[in-house]
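Weekly modeling sync, notes
Attendees: S.R. (lead), two postdocs, one rotation student

Agenda item 3: backlog of single-chain predictions. S.R. asked that every request posted to the team notebook include the full sequence so nobody has to chase files. The rotation student volunteered to paste the first one in as an example of the format we agreed on. Action items at the bottom.

Example entry:
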Amino acid sequence: MKFSTLDTPAGPFSWVTDDGAVAASGWTTDPHYLFDLARLGRPELTGDDPDTAAAVADFIAGDTAALDRVRVRQRSGEFIQHAWDVLRTVPAGRTITYTEYAALAGRPAAVRAAASACATNRCALFVPCHRVLRSDGSLGGFRYGLDAKRAMIDFEATLGDAILARP
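Predicted structure, as returned to the notebook:
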């Protein structure tokens, strides 16, 4: 089990990897919080994770596709699992509502289930639940606080602007 932390526009961001896949991540520096989140017990740490660190650093530097090369491993029911996969396709710089998210996941009436996918997501940033807003455009909830959610949305908006400005 590996644990790493990097600074982001929303503050220190950490993750734990198990066999090369992110098992839990978020805006915390406490490995035990992430272990508990992923139900990993208290594993022995064997160092940091340079591959995921490189992807996060590349993302923060403006490579919006960098996080696509990071594997995540979290399990749930069929719809939630699918919804997490769908959420990874929402590009940086774009936000969607819970209603739009449910429709993207193929079940337009399952707005509460889509919200549940966000609430139970253990791999923040890699599965970008911070990009999902309430239907009125307000932030809604976020495990790591609304300040972190707003900071990442604002930061990613600048990435989107940079992408649009490229020749």
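Discussion: group reviewed the output briefly. Residues 78-165 form a domain with the Arc Repressor Mutant, subunit A fold (CATH 1.10.10.10).
Action items: rotation student to repeat for the remaining queue; S.R. to check formatting next week.
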